[in-house]
Amino acid sequence: MATHRNPLIIGAGPAGLTAALELVHRGVVPRIYEATEHVGGLARTPTAGQWRADPGGHRFFTQHEEIMDLWKELLPHDEWLAVPRRSAMLVDGHLVPYPLLGRELVTRLGFRSGMRGASGLMWSRFRRGMRAVEKEQTFREWGIEEFGKHWYRIFFDGYVRKTWLADPDSLSSDWANQRIKPIDWRRAGKRGDADDDVFRYPRLGPGQLWDAAAAALTDAGVTPSLNSPVVGLHHDGRQWNIELQNGDIAAGDAVFSSMPLQLLMHMLKPAPPKHIRAIAGTLRHRSLITVAVALSEHRDIPYNWVYTPGADCRVGRVQNYLRWSPALAPEGFTGTYLGLEYFTLPHDDLWLADDETLRAIVERDLQVLGVGDSSVQQLMTIRSQYAYPIYEAGRERNVVRIRDYLRENHPGLHPIGRNGMHRYDNQDHAMLSALRSVGRYFGEKVDPWLVNTGLGYHETGLLRS
Ligand SMILES: Cc1cc2nc3c(=O)[nH]c(=O)nc-3n(C[C@H](O)[C@H](O)[C@H](O)COP(=O)(O)OP(=O)(O)OC[C@H]3O[C@@H](n4cnc5c(N)ncnc54)[C@H](O)[C@@H]3O)c2cc1C
């Protein structure tokens, strides 16, 4: 038992809770401080009566056995659903299955569009073949090279502008290889028959897993302190002191922080040098407003997700909740239950819109989606301010400089998770970074910053029963 240790954890999302579970596993009792009134962070399940919603559409998949084992340990087998992955893009009124299938591309959008796309792709591939050296690419360059000019324009340009709220020329492409699957030319229109087209999903939404994690921790004597925002962080030369909004101070030998990295650097004392604070100030986030809407009429939409790159609607992506889990709606509900995802920036007009304005936008979008005639039975709005770390040019270099500064000056301060490390992490990456950070805290030679740095496609995982 390592009883002399008393670490503190900021945030009870997947990373913070995983760090706590691992510490408990190794005989250490941490304290967890969570700003909001719930655990699960971005992967919580907000509720309104018997309605449940998923803020982001959380597919559970991983390439790491240790994460899969932890998920299985926390939730019993019959609470996990195996859900076939079915996504589509709404382009010019047509639903085109996504990830893109070669045969669908040349047939669904008409002969002319198909030919334009195919010749654009061949030309891009020819040019790639002629390129003498590998170079860092913007998202637009990457997209045109990968999909050809026509298919890039109709599927990705508008979508990236809408979801990333940035010009594709100003975005680096380093996340794209991990997240965007190349066109599949092999399987002629067949889907759902391979392991990688099925993901796991907790019956009651993603937060069910994190509620179970919190319950396991409570059983072990570690109950996260909710409604406890951390507003200050100070190393006094001997130990860490974190200051809570209510003025309380908690002291410990180490801190695992899943709060946004730039906020951490801002509240750290002694204050980091000016250039490090300036770099931290450049790290930005996009926010997300998810509007869960239950419509009284049933529409048969054979997809979990529909991406909406067109400029005719403001919504960026639509979740079809009953395809994720029927238990997200009350028993006996026979209508359609959708989650409209609006990508926004903190303080822009959408983020600041009042409920009435937002509802008008939602109703207009439902018309464009072709479901506007059905009456709205239930509506729930979920706001996630720090939803996506923005991948601007220079982000990687800047984050590395902050990492190096912290390593050298504050080895007992461990940034973990998606916003903690300012990375486009899925839950499993956030969890792994927490596990590796705890390992480091115990003196193991592991590097949490190496998690989620592979350049290959990430969106598939192990599937074991
Ligand atoms: C739209 C969307 C879709 C996604 N889809 C998937 C998917 O399909 N599959 C998947 O695996 N992952 C998905 N993710 C990613 C997943 O949500 C994250 O990887 C995961 O939630 C990260 O966990 P975390 O603990 O690092 O961060 P978070 O979930 O952000 O948790 C951080 C916690 O810290 C708390 N906190 C912040 N500041 C403070 C403070 N000052 N004091 C105290 N507490 C604080 C926050 O309130 C929060 O609870 C998606 C995310 C989004 C936004």
Automatic annotation (TrEMBL):
One of its GO terms (cellular component) is cytosol. Pfam families: Amino_oxidase. SUPFAM superfamilies: FAD/NAD(P)-binding domain (SSF51905). It comes from the Bacteria. One of its GO terms (molecular function) is UDP-galactopyranose mutase activity. Residues 15-395 form the Amine oxidase domain. InterPro entries: Amino_oxidase, FAD/NAD-bd_sf. NCBIfam families: PRK07208.1-3 (NF005547). This is Amine oxidase domain-containing protein.
